[in-house]
UniProtKB/TrEMBL annotation:
GO terms for molecular function: zinc ion binding. Residues 104-148 form the MYND-type domain. This is MSS51 mitochondrial translational activator. The lineage of its organism: Eukaryota, Metazoa, Chordata, Craniata, Vertebrata. InterPro entries: Mito_gene_expr_regulator, Mss51-like_C, Znf_MYND. Keywords: Metal-binding, Zinc, Zinc-finger.
């Protein structure tokens, strides 16, 4: 049978060739260095890995059997035939994936830089960073000790993510048994779904998929509590986005009982939001607002994955359903071509996950037309950032643009999965959508 692209589904999918997910794990940390939007930004982010670890981008391509960044990008876009990879078996795939992390965390040496007698060995505690020898490991410890514990979790999550991609980890779903007002954060959400989650997690932990995963990865299987912890973190990572949209609806007071339904545009969307994303992933948003008359989530960005575009369709919005669709475009172009011409209605809310406009002048330039447009059309908007520092920097920029910030703070639905800075593993891991900012219109 020809290999097929693995998909995350809410129903169990047939076994598929385990290949294309690898770049997802490799790519996830990239937005930390430089993120969307702009067609060339991702390439920039990819090659900027080399400024921390010279030669790392080449190592990644080589280990993943890819010739160029263009090929890598095609995979992220979901537009490459999977048969082109040529991994013989899951063992080889996991080995190659692990090899992309194989550089000395202290002196940055790659395997190719070492003399024949030397090999890179991982830290025994976290199994996540590598050292070319005991000297480097010793010198690195004062820095590494601060993140070793957290990086251990990252290393487990990275492998467990595979079960999401293959469809073996099916997220708990279904109407909320509690009134939505009682569910204001992860703690209450987990309490509400408690029994259901226990049953789900126990089933996965006892599954054949779990056994074969750990048989393939060539490292000891963690104990059930560690595996459960990881599954819970992955769950928050997937559901963080829909529930953060829900937070925006609540705080910004969006009317979800509007005739014809309500629309939210996710701006600057890229492979991060759309690769392996399926419509069911946002059902939780619908359950948060029982009695809603249809919710349409439109992903707009130049890097929206092709696979996502093909997997979604814009059929009429039914009350009580959540619909996903995508547009490959910069938002201000999308606005001109789709909204101003009346093809698509004004959004009830706009969301940007980690726009990153505080990070560089280039990104600020790319975002400026969109920010001004949102301000001038008084569109309720929510953005998220990774850290308190980014929160402060972003707030300053919005205030300087004369934008009326209505709320900001720690996101009660942040992802609880730590993200390692790929080329600089000793940097403090961060959490997706850890903080939010909401704004509406001009300051005066
Ligand atoms: Zn070293
Ligand atoms: Zn360690």
């Amino acid at each position: 049978m020809a290999p097929r692209l693995p998909r995350r589904r809410h129903k169990k999918s047939p076994t598929v060739a385990p290949v294309v997910v690898i770049p997802l794990t490799v790519v996830t940390p990239l937005p930390l260095t430089l993120s969307k939007p702009g067609p060339s930004i991702d390439a920039h982010g990819f090659f900027s890995l080399d400024s921390n670890v010279p030669g790392l981008s080449q190592l990644i391509l080589q280990k993943l059997n890819m010739k160029s960044y263009e090929e890598y990008k095609l995979v992220i876009d979901g537009g490459i035939p999977v048969s082109g990879f040529g991994f013989q078996c899951p063992q080889e795939m996991f080995q190659r994936m692990e090899d992309t992390f194989r550089f000395c965390a202290h002196c940055r040496a790659l395997p190719s830089n070492l003399s024949d007698s030397k090999v890179l060995r991982h830290c025994k505690r976290c199994r996540n960073v590598y050292y070319c020898g005991p000297e480097c490991q010793r010198s690195d410890w004062p820095v590494h000790r601060k993140v070793c514990q957290e990086l251990r979790l990252v290393a487990v999550d990275r492998l467990m993510e595979w079960l999401l991609a293959t469809g073996d980890f099916v997220l708990p779903s279904g109407p909320w048994p509690w009134p939505a007002e009682d569910v204001q954060d992860w703690n209450t959400w987990f309490s509400m779904r408690g029994l259901q989650i226990d049953a789900t997690l126990n089933a996965i932990i006892g599954s054949h998929a779990m056994t074969s995963l750990w048989a393939s990865v060539g490292r000891p299987r963690p104990d059930p509590d560690d595996l459960k912890g990881s599954l819970r973190r992955l769950l928050t990572d997937v559901l963080s986005r829909p529930l953060t949209l829900g937070l925006g609806f609540r705080v910004l007071g969006i009317d979800v009982r509007k005739t014809g339904g309500s629309a939210v545009h996710v701006v600057g969307a890229s492979h991060v939001e759309t690769f392996l994303t399926r419509s069911g992933d946002y059902d939780e948003l619908g359950y948060m607002f029982s009695g809603h008359l249809g919710l349409h989530v439109i992903m707009v960005g130049v890097d929206v994955s092709a696979d996502f575009l093909h997997s979604t369709s814009a059929s009429p919005l039914e009350p009580g359903t959540v619909q996903l669709s995508g547009h490959r475009s910069l938002y201000h172009d999308f606005w001109e071509e789709q909204i101003e011409t009346g093809k698509i209605a004004y959004p009830d809310m706009v969301v940007a996950f980690h726009p990153g406009f505080h990070a560089s002048l280039n990104l600020m330039e790319a975002w400026l037309p969109t920010l001004l447009l949102l301000r001038d059309y008084k569109i309720p908007t929510l953005i998220t950032v990774y850290s308190h520092q980014e929160l402060a920097a972003s707030l300053q920029i919005l205030v300087n643009l004369d934008i009326h910030v209505t709320a900001y703070g720690a996101n009660p639905f942040t992802s609880l999965k730590p993200e390692q800075v790929y080329s600089n593993p000793n940097k403090q891991p961060v959490y997706c959508s850890a903080y939010y900012i909401m704004f509406l219109g001009p300051a005066r």
